[in-house]
Amino acid sequence: MGVKRERVPFVLTADFVYLIQRGPIQDNEMMKSFKELCLSAYMALRKKSHFLITLFMMMTNTGIPELSNFQSIEFLCKTLVPDYSDQDARNHWNRQVGEALSNSFWAAVNFAFHNVAKNN
């Protein structure tokens, strides 16, 4: 319908944050631990980024709707930033987390539209 649904790098709604933090206290130890775990996972994926990008490129011909064009590959490249240094990649990830947190309203709206479309 011409509406850009994906407005955040990944879904991290206020409800998710509340659950992660186990309450309303902002940026507590639980949230810090969550961010550290996510950063570790991200950095591990980056180490295999060229393999993952190649694998996803090969899957574009499989008929999987989410991989029907190279925009998915571009998204993967922009997310994993394989040409960045490790420190630049960490900074990139931290900016992505900040963007996801500050735009959690749009993620919740996207969720709502997705649920409506799925149930109709």
TrEMBL record:
GO terms for cellular component: cytoplasm; phosphatidylinositol 3-kinase complex; plasma membrane. GO terms for molecular function: 1-phosphatidylinositol-3-kinase activity; 1-phosphatidylinositol-4-phosphate 3-kinase activity. GO terms for biological process: cell migration; phosphatidylinositol 3-kinase/protein kinase B signal transduction; phosphatidylinositol-mediated signaling. Coiled coil: none annotated. It holds the Pfam family PI3_PI4_kinase. Residues 1-105 form the PI3K/PI4K catalytic domain. InterPro entries: Kinase-like_dom_sf, PI3/4_kinase, PI3/4_kinase_cat_dom, PI3/4_kinase_cat_sf. The keyword Transferase applies. The keyword Kinase applies. Keywords: Kinase, Transferase. It comes from the Eukaryota. This is PI3K/PI4K catalytic domain-containing protein.
